C-alpha cells in the first residue's frame, strides 16, 4: 500500500502498515519535531509506512475493564489480586521474547555454529543478570530500569528524536511511582536491598515530572503526524499506570500494548512458521525461561526475595537484557538489509 511521497521502511513491517492511522496526511507547512519527513519535495508530512502506531483492540477492552474495576472499587491491591496480575504479565507478556532466537536465525540466515553461539550468548547474558540479581541486586535493578526505558522507547517507531523515545520509555517506569509510591518502593525493596530499592523509587518520583512532560510532547508529535491510535493508547496506558495499582497498570501496558507489537512484528518476519510451530516455540521458550528461573530460585532460596511478584519482575529483568540486545540487533540488521 504505497503512498506517493513517503519512504517505505521495509525493515519494519509493523501491522500499523495497514492501519488508517498510517495514511493520515498532516497539516502541511508545520515544522516537524523529531519525526522523519517524507520525501523532501513533498510538504505533506505523514508517518512513513511501517512506522505508525499499532494498538491491538484488546488493549481498549482491557483498559475499559481495568477502569470499571477501579471505579467499582474492586480490591485490586489485595495480595490475591496482585498474584493474578503477576500471572497475567508473566503468561501474557513474557512469550513475546520467545521468538528472539528464531528471529536472529531468520534475520542473519546464519549457519549452525553461529546460531549456537547466538543462543549461548542470549542464555549467558540472562544467566549473568540472574547472578547480578543475587549478588548485586541494586545494580541489577538500576540496569533493569535503564534497559526497560530504552526498550520501551523503541516501541515509538514513529519518532526519530532519541530524547523523545527515551522519555516515553522512562514514562512507563516513573508513572506508577507517582500514583503508588509506597507500593513501588515495597516492590523495589523486595527486589533489591531494602533501603536501596526505596531510594530508587524516590529517584523515579523525582524524574517523573520531566519524563512525563517530554512524553507529552512525544504523544503530541505522534498524534500530529498521524500515529493517532498509538498516541491515544499510550496516553491511556500512562494514565492507567499512574492510577491503577502498579502491577495491574504494568500488565495492561506490557500484555496489551508492548507485547502485541513484538508478536505481530515477529509473526510477519517468520511467515512460514505453521500456527502449531509458532505456539510450540512460544510455549517452549517461555517454559524454559520460567523453569531456569525456578531452578535458580529454589536451589538458592536465600539469594532471592520470597515475594512472587518481585521475583517475577526479576525474571523479566534477567531476560530483558538479552531481549533488548536481540531486538536492536534484529532491527539494525533488517535496516541494513533493506538499504
Ligand atoms: C519492577 C516494577 C516496575 C518496573 C518494571 C519494568 C522495568 C519492566 C520491564 C520489562 C521489560 C524491559 C520487558 C521487555 O520486554 C514498575 C512498572 C515500575 C512497577 C513497580 C514494579
Ligand atoms: Fe519487549
Structure description:
- Helix 6 packs antiparallel against helix 10 (246-269) and helix 7 (181-191) packs across helix 8.
- The protein has one domain (52-338).
- The protein is mostly helical.
- It has helices at 57-71, 79-93, 100-108, 112-135, 137-153, 162-179, 181-191, 195-224, 228-243, 246-269, 275-299, 308-338.
- The structure holds retinal (RET) and fe (ii) ion (FE2).
- Residues 96, 151, 258, 262, 323 line the site of fe (ii) ion.
- Retinal binds next to helix 5, helix 6, helix 7, helix 10 and helix 12.
Features:
single chain; 12 helices; globular; disordered N terminus; binds retinal; binds fe (ii) ion
Distance between the termini: 19 Å
Q: What is the number of E strands?
A: 0
Q: Determine the mean pLDDT.
A: 83
Q: What ligands are attached or bound here? A: retinal, fe (ii) ion
The percentage helix is 55-70%
Number of helices: 12
Structural class, judged by helices and strands? mainly alpha
Largest sheet: none
Unreliable stretches (pLDDT < 50, length at least 5) are 1-50
Strand content is: under 5%
What spatial form do the alpha-carbon principal axes imply? globular
Order of helices and strands: HHHHHHHHHHHH
Amino acid at each position: 500500500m504505497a503512498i506517493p511521497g513517503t519512504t517505505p521502511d521495509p525493515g519494519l513491517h509493523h501491522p500499523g502498515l495497514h492501519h488508517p492511522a498510517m495514511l493520515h496526511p498532516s497539516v502541511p507547512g508545520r515544522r516537524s519535531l523529531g519525526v522523519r519527513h517524507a520525501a523532501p519535495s513533498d510538504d505533506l508530512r505523514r508517518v512513513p509506512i511501517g512506522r505508525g502506531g499499532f494498538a491491538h483492540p484488546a488493549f481498549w477492552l482491557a483498559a475499559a475493564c481495568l477502569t470499571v474495576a477501579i471505579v467499582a472499587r474492586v480490591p485490586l491491591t489485595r495480595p490475591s489480586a496482585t498474584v493474578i496480575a503477576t500471572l497475567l504479565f508473566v503468561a501474557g507478556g513474557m512469550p513475546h521474547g520467545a521468538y528472539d532466537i528464531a528471529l536472529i536465525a531468520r534475520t542473519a540466515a546464519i549457519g549452525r555454529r553461529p546460531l549456537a553461539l547466538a543462543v549461548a550468548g542470549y542464555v549467558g547474558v540472562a544467566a549473568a543478570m540472574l547472578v547480578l540479581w543475587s549478588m548485586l541486586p541494586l545494580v541489577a535493578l538500576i540496569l533493569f530500569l535503564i534497559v526497560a526505558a530504552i526498550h520501551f522507547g523503541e516501541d515509538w517507531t514513529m519518532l526519530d528524536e532519541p530524547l523523545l523515545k527515551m522519555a516515553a520509555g522512562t514514562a512507563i517506569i516513573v508513572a506508577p511511582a507517582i500514583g503508588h509510591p509506597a507500593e513501588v518502593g515495597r516492590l523495589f525493596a523486595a527486589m533489591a536491598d531494602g533501603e536501596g530499592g526505596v531510594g530508587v523509587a524516590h529517584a523515579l518520583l523525582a524524574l517523573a515530572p520531566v519524563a512525563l512532560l517530554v512524553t507529552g510532547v512525544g504523544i503530541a508529535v505522534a498524534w500530529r503526524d498521524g500515529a493517532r491510535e498509538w498516541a491515544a493508547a499510550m496516553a491511556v496506558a500512562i494514565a492507567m499506570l499512574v492510577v491503577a495499582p502498579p502491577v495491574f497498570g504494568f500488565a495492561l501496558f506490557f500484555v496489551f500494548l508492548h507485547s502485541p507489537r513484538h508478536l505481530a512484528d515477529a509473526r510477519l518476519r517468520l511467515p512460514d512458521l505453521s500456527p502449531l510451530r509458532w505456539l510450540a516455540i512460544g510455549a517452549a521458550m517461555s517454559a524454559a525461561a520460567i523453569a531456569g528461573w525456578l531452578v535458580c530460585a529454589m536451589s538458592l532460596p536465600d539469594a532471592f526475595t520470597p515475594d512472587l511478584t518481585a521475583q517475577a519482575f526479576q525474571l523479566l529483568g534477567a531476560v530483558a537484557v538479552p531481549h533488548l540486545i536481540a531486538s536492536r540487533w534484529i532491527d539494525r540488521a533488517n535496516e541494513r538489509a533493506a538499504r
